[in-house]
Amino acid sequence: MLIAGIATLLLLFLLLALARPSWGGRATPMQGALPPGPTPLPLLGNLLQLGSGRLDHALMELSGRWGPVFTVRLGPRPAVILCGYAALRDALVLQADTFSGRGAMTVFERFTRGNGILFSNGQRWRTLRNFAVGALKEFGLGTRTVEERVLEETACLLGAPFDPRRLLDNAVSNVICFVVFGSRYGYQDPEFLKLLDLFSENFRIMSSRWGEMYNIFPSILHWLPGPHHRIFRNFAELRVFISEQIQRHRQTRQPGEPRDFIDCFLDQMDQVHKDSERHFQEETLVMTTHNLFFGGTETTSNTLRYGLLILLKYPEVAAKVQAELDAVVGRMRAPSLEDRGRLPYTNAVLHEIQRFISVVPLGLPRALTPDTHLHGHFLPKGTFVIPLLVSAHRDPTQFKDPDSFNPRNFLNNEGEFQSNDAFTPFALGKRMCLGAGLARSEIFLFFTAILQRFCLLPVGSPTNLDLTPQCTSLGNMPPAFQLRLVTL
Ligand code: HEM
């Protein structure tokens, strides 16, 4: 309905031709034909064919007719869609450099201006990504420190009643706070609660139709009232918050003795002689810090929340995880990352949760760095590409009965854990999520700590629990639900 209303408004604007090439604002150099796809209407492109339901499902349906590599027009702008595991692998892995550019999204473009890791390109992106990977390793990712952090936060979760949304957001954000700011916040701290509200509201609006439409028709939506305007107010507040944190760090730091990610970046800024291209500037630090929060909080906490909802719906699966935890870990100590290899069923359930929910269903857009060919199609440099990650997870050539939740997708006949290359919640290739290791550790540690001690009970009947996501496109969020934890 909303999309139909917006479409009518857009038609009124048609004569004024306000729209310019968008979902990014950067023009895509188009030489030659792109892969075929449904016939577009002027200005609206294929929006009406994509319908008013879920964009990811509509694109998968179109792939049935147009194949794994096809073009749709989101408004005036063409986007090449990669659908199914084979197309994603052939592009993102087998042509990793070619597909490593980031496709612009207006909503982020206006805030980041191509700065930070998520939305930069070329040498700046390479330099910042390498720096961040190194700095994050130093401050906990991939080491026992993360285990300690997650366990500290889990301890705060335990104790009914349990509000999954707020508490899980707090816990997950605190892990990133520790890495970036060097400290955690109390769950009642008003500064912290404000920070979380800003991030989660932005994620929600960006994942809504308003966010989708803003990316497609920025110059029209700019003049229409709606929640999308809050995105930019929230961004401005986040910028102030992060800048204040940086100032506090400046006042208390010992150069050369970094306590956290911000100190590490400030140390790098001191070495101006090595930074001839000026990649290490305060504005870049603000954007990079924002990227780590934005990339690392909603994605992880949505996964945890969705996972709890799925386990409420399938209590027999939760019971099997608990039996495995009892047998392997017992109740005298907390589960640790070292236990993961000895918990095949639990590991399979966590993979299946991530597969089933596809928390970032459309991935993040890529842009081609040189011209290339893919599956017999010529694709010019700059082509805007949508890697439809959910399509790998729903690919019937890779998973049996892919629309159902079934942990056997990640178990062999002997009941051992079995990975699957089509498991791609973090995307593939050179731009793959740089927090994947941290996220997987968090997901494992939070789930096992909760399930080791508690039985999950839904408020209401488990058969009535709806697993349909609340918002789609940027992120799949679980519908609101309540649960009670009862000590085992
Ligand atoms: C369940 C949790 C998570 C999921 C599902 C997820 C998923 C993704 C996806 C799909 C991308 C886009 C990759 C591409 O361009 O194709 C991405 C990028 C990124 N993620 Fe994550 N992520 C998660 C957790 C995290 C965490 C914990 C952090 C921070 C430590 C993080 C930081 C980033 C950053 C900085 C990028 C940009 C990488 C680049 O452009 O080079 N993510 N993530």
Automatic annotation (TrEMBL):
What keywords does the record list, in alphabetical order? Endoplasmic reticulum, Heme, Iron, Membrane, Metal-binding, Microsome, Monooxygenase, Oxidoreductase, Signal
- List the GO biological process terms: epoxygenase P450 pathway; xenobiotic metabolic process
Q: Which GO terms describe its cellular component?
A: cytoplasm; endoplasmic reticulum membrane
- Give the molecular function GO annotations: arachidonate epoxygenase activity; heme binding; iron ion binding; oxidoreductase activity, acting on paired donors, with incorporation or reduction of molecular oxygen, reduced flavin or flavoprotein as one donor, and incorporation of one atom of oxygen
Q: Where in the sequence is the signal peptide annotated?
A: 1-24
Cofactor names from the entry are: heme
Q: What is its main location?
A: endoplasmic reticulum
Identify the SUPFAM superfamilies for this entry.
Cytochrome P450 (SSF48264)
What Pfam families does the record point to? Answer: p450
Question: Which residues are noted in the entry as heme-binding?
Answer: C433
- InterPro entries recorded for this chain? Cyt_P450, Cyt_P450_E_grp-I, Cyt_P450_E_grp-I_CYP2A-like, Cyt_P450_sf, Cytochrome_P450_fam2
Q: Which reaction does it catalyse?
A: an organic molecule + reduced [NADPH--hemoprotein reductase] + O2 = an alcohol + oxidized [NADPH--hemoprotein reductase] + H2O + H(+)
Q: How does this protein sit in the membrane?
A: Peripheral membrane protein
Q: Write down the EC number.
A: 1.14.14.1
Lineage, top-rank taxon, reads Eukaryota
| Annotated localization | Endoplasmic reticulum membrane; Microsome membrane
Briefly state the protein's biological role. Cytochromes P450 are a group of heme-thiolate monooxygenases.
Report the family membership.
Belongs to the cytochrome P450 family.
Q: Which PANTHER family match?
A: CYTOCHROME P450 508A4-RELATED, CYTOCHROME P450, FAMILY 2, SUBFAMILY T, POLYPEPTIDE 4
What is the official name of this protein in its record? Answer: Cytochrome P450
Q: Gene name on record? A: LOC100068295
